[in-house]
Amino acid sequence: MALKIYIVGKDTIPSKVSLGAGEEMDIVFVALPGEDRSVAMDVELDAPGASAQIRGLYIATGSQKVDLTFNVRHNSGGCHSRQLVKGIASGSARASFYGKIYVAQDAQKTKAYQENHNILASEKARIDTKPQLEIYADDVECSHGATIGRLNQDEQFYMRSRGIPEAEARRLQMISFLAPVAGLLPQDLAEKVYESLSQCED
Amino acid sequence: MDKVLLKIENLHAGIAGKEILKGIDLTINEGEVHALMGPNGAGKSTLSAVLTGRPDFVVTEGSVTFRGKDLLAMSPEERAWEGLFLSFQYPIEIPGVSISNFMKSAINAKRKAAGLKDIAPGDYLRLLKEKMAMVKMKGEFAKRDVNVGFSGGEKKRNEIFQMAMLEPVLSILDETDSGLDVDALKIVSDGVEALRSPQTGFIVITHYPSLLESMKPDVVHVLKGGRIVCNGGMEVAEKVQSSGFESF
Ligand SMILES: Nc1ncnc2c1ncn2[C@@H]1O[C@H](COP(=O)(O)OP(=O)(O)OP(=O)(O)O)[C@@H](O)[C@H]1O
Ligand SMILES: [Mg+2]
């Protein structure tokens, strides 16, 4: 199934999705600087072979708030879900990620992965990440990883020592961080994402 | 009279409240190669870091003039534009940034600071190829992320490649020769030789005399306990080799 791209605040992301046998969902969302953004999705995997892939990125600037909530429920066995969300909070922005993976008792052979990686690009920004696994089946392959980091100072100094200005060094770091998701977007949108990084204040 | 490139006077600097450099005086004229030797922990890399403006080091006293300008007042990038280069003792890995993009950003930033337009893509590719060939780096490295997964020797070669690309006026080589095989060592000395001119200068930090034999430094300094304790010619390097740093 084709990749669906949603610009948060502009396109309407389905809040509830139920997938039956062999049905697939593959979406990428983009939350750009500007108004507060929120995404809340409930995804139900109801029959074997259903698969859901949710990827997305956010860039939060100024006093913006970004709230992301994903509730992925493996009600049936033999389903596959994958989440990858990357984001940067700068200025005095606040971002939160709440991601729950539920695997029902008889949902054997489930594969469920979730990753949420965040960068705090300023002192005042705040990021909250709450990954939750609720697994009742035993024959499953599940993993989740959540990180909140800062831009690496050694990398920055190395680049600056070669003459790359500090702001440009930070931009290169942010681009490389977002690339695994931004690389999925059409070129004009990816460029818009990268351009909006200039609004990130430390 | 010789033209002064770098003049360090009574430089005191440290990190995390601890003084490491305790009054350094050092003058480098255009066209000179200076060797800097000294025991582990003497402060050689600290001096390199302070000269290139690493933000976590603090200068508490003294002055540094580079090409007639107050070096310490400049940002790290401004120092690079002015022609200062450090080959890092421990080069940094930058995941997600290719060597090619990294160097293009560096070159264009310097051009912008000088009021020039971006380098033409074709010219850039030619330059990249020429310099990679010079340090015998395979073309595929241009696409690889900076230093990620490089062997120790490949990292050092990448430093020399960057030096060749940026054509600095003053290059500091912080143990660029450590851990290199004979062929790679030759690449380093050839890289230095190619840049050497009556206008450029070098500070070569090393623990071994072999690189110095090919580079023939004008002056050899010994740094110990944050101070320069000896200035001389190649005989100083030989004395270090034969009897260590005890006697300095
Ligand atoms: N970030 C730091 N925090 C605390 N002390 C530091 C830091 N960096 C360096 N030092 C200390 O400063 C002193 C000088 O270190 P430096 O790296 O300049 O030595 P060096 O002469 O380059 O040694 P080597 O030959 O081993 O490379 C050492 O005692 C070191 O432990
Ligand atoms: Mg050192």
SSE blueprint:
The complex is a heterodimer of chains A (202) and B (248).
Chain A: E1 4-7, E2 16-19, E3 24-31, E4 37-45, E5 51-60, E6 65-74, E7 80-89, E8 94-103, E9 110-120, E10 126-135, E11 140-149, H1 153-161, H2 166-182, H3 187-196
Parallel strand pairs in A: 1-3, 2-4, 3-5, 4-6, 5-7, 6-8, 7-9, 8-10, 9-11
Helix pairs in contact in A: 1-2, 2-3
Chain B: E1 4-15, E2 18-29, E3 33-37, H1 44-52, E4 57-66, E5 69-70, H2 76-82, E6 84-87, E7 94-98, H3 99-113, H4 121-134, E8 145-146, H5 152-166, E9 170-174, H6 182-195, E10 201-205, H7 209-215, E11 219-224, E12 227-232, H8 234-243
Parallel strand pairs in B: 3-10, 3-11, 6-9, 9-10
Antiparallel strand pairs in B: 1-2, 1-4, 4-5, 7-8, 11-12
Helix pairs in contact in B: 4-5, 5-6
Q: Main β-sheet of chain B: number of strands, strand sense, barrel status?
A: 6 strands, mixed
Q: Give the SSE string of chain B.
A: EEEHEEHEEHHEHEHEHEEH
Mean pLDDT of chain A: 96
The total count of helices of chain A amounts to: 3
Name the strands of the widest sheet of chain B in spatial order.
6-9-10-3-11-12
Query: What is the helix content of chain B?
Result: 25-40%
Question: What is the makeup of the main sheet of chain A?
Answer: 6 strands, parallel
Overall mean pLDDT of chain B: 95
Q: Output the CATH class name of chain B.
A: Alpha Beta
Computed structural class of chain B: alpha/beta
Percent of residues in β-strands of chain A: over 45%
Counting helices, strands and paired strands, the structural category of chain A is alpha/beta
Task: Supply the number of structural domains of chain A.
Answer: 1
Number of domains of chain B: 1
CATH homologous superfamily name of chain B?
P-loop containing nucleotide triphosphate hydrolases
CATH level 3 topology of chain B: Rossmann fold
- Straight-line distance between termini of chain A: 40 Å
Q: Based on Cα principal axes, name the global outline of chain A.
A: elongated
CATH architecture of chain B: 3-Layer(aba) Sandwich
Number of strands of chain A: 11
Q: Oligomeric form of this entry?
A: heterodimer
